[in-house]
Design goal:
Blueprint lengths: L2 H13 L9 E4 L7 E7 L2 E7 L8 H18 L18 E3 L3 E7 L13 H17 L18 H14 L2 H5 L2 H9 L2 H10 L8 E3 L8 E3 L5 E4 L6 E3 L1 H12 L17 H15 L5 H5 L1 H21 L12 H34 L1
Antiparallel strand pairs: 1-2, 2-3, 3-5, 4-5, 6-9, 7-8
Helix pairs in contact: 3-9, 4-11, 8-9, 8-11, 9-12, 11-12
The structure holds 2-acetamido-2-deoxy-1-O-phosphono-alpha-D-glucopyranose and magnesium ion.
Length: 364
């Protein structure tokens, strides 16, 4: 789309909302892979405009409904909790929709907030873990089954593993033939899938909770002193398990470099960051978490790193239909990066488990 057509499109959407279009400017914003995000300025007001990727989120109206339910609940029961809810348009709907343009939502920009892409120190990891823990803790009195499942089977590791295996039969034969080491490693770790199933089959030990399901650091807004303000990117808020949020924090905070890094020698497990995640999450969730959940924090990391390695490799073998690729073999590199991270987590496991046990003792 050319710039003028894009500008008209943004104006058409904004005209549906009670905002002044005066001096409107916008620019792409953030680093998400799925939805397209823009920072919009109208005079001295700022908004976040997001186009919902309907290839991924088949029923965007379910997202709007979930956020409405959560917002209502929080306002009633936890009015002090800061929750960023999308704005209602002139018809009182919190999503803009039209046949040609698809689904968009407009959210107020949180003034004075910033987000970061990589965790620089333990303080940032602590703040993020507090925010994600607080989110689930505040919703402990909300029945998670009231929420619509916006992405069915999103963190279903058994399904992801089965899809991986079937892609090995039906995917791009050249790409598969070149990736034997990665494939062998994934196969060698398949016991993670069995342990994952054990978790899902024991609801008393591992209760279903309201989980965020995308706890990367850029989904936490920080103030100028790097103190947490709130969590954002709420499309995947659904009923789920502790491992989704805890595990994705470990996956994305422990290493000083992200899943995009091509130089795998830079991938490492930062033990103090682990301690900070546990401390922050326990601070908010210690009353809620079961003994079994607390004991399985390191395992949560394994599940999520393993799942992400599988998802990137599967996409590579499927010619990048889901994540897209900014350069040839992009998803292969991302997948191998996650494999390296999992190997390093496995090596660090005894040290991490030791810290975890100390922190469990400290909150008893
Ligand atoms: C996607 O779009 P984004 O960056 O928020 C993906 C996550 C992955 C992540 C990997 C709906 O999240 O599950 O962990 O990429 N979200 C979806 O960077 O597939
Ligand atoms: Mg996301």
């Amino acid at each position: 789309m050319n710039a003028i057509a894009q500008q008209d499109l943004v104006k058409t959407i904004l005209a549906d909302f009670p905002v002044t279009l005066e001096d409107m400017t916008y620019r792409p914003f953030g680093s998400g892979l799925i939805n397209s995000t823009y920072l919009v300025k109208c005079g001295d007001q700022q908004f976040i405009l997001q186009k919902i990727n309907q290839d991924v989120f088949r029923r965007p109206e379910d997202i709007a409904e979930n956020l409405r339910l959560i917002n209502t609940h929080l306002q009633q029961h936890h009015p002090d909790y800061f929750f960023v809810h999308p704005l209602a348009n002139r018809r009182q709907q919190t999503m803009f929709w039209n046949e040609e343009m698809g689904y968009y939502r407009l959210t107020p920009y949180v003034q004075g907030s910033q987000s970061i892409d990589v965790v620089g120190n333990a303080g940032e990891a602590f703040e993020a873990a507090v925010q994600f823990g607080r989110f689930t803790a505040r919703l402990a009195d909300f029945d998670p089954q009231r929420l619509k499942v916006t992405l069915p089977d999103f963190h279903n590791l058994r399904l992801r593993y089965d899809q991986f295996k079937s892609t090995l039969l039906h995917g791009d034969a050249t790409r598969i033939a070149e990736a034997t080491d990665a494939i062998d490693f994934i196969r060698s770790q398949a016991a993670i899938v069995d342990e994952y199933e054990h978790i899902c089959n024991h609801p008393t030990l591992y209760p279903v909770r309201v989980m965020h399901h995308d706890t990367k650091i850029s989904n936490v807004l920080l103030d100028k002193n790097k103190k947490g303000i709130c969590v954002i990117d709420l499309d995947t808020v659904m009923p789920g398990y502790f491992f989704s949020d805890v595990g994705d924090m470990l996956r994305t905070y422990l290493s000083p470099v992200s899943e995009e890094e091509k130089d795998f020698t830079k991938i490492a497990i930062r033990i103090p960051i682990f301690a900070a995640i546990v401390k922050g999450y326990f601070q908010e969730m210690k009353e809620e978490l079961t003994t079994a959940e607390k004991a399985h924090f390191v395992f949560a990391g394994k599940i999520m790193i393993y799942m992400q390695a599988i998802r990137f490799l599967t996409d590579h073998f499927n010619n990048d239909v889901y994540y897209g690729a900014r350069y040839p073999y992009h998803n292969y590199v991302r997948g191998c990066n996650q494999i390296e991270l999992l190997k390093k987590l496995n090596e660090a496991e005894p040290a991490l488990q030791h810290i975890l046990e100390q922190q469990i003792d400290a909150i008893q």
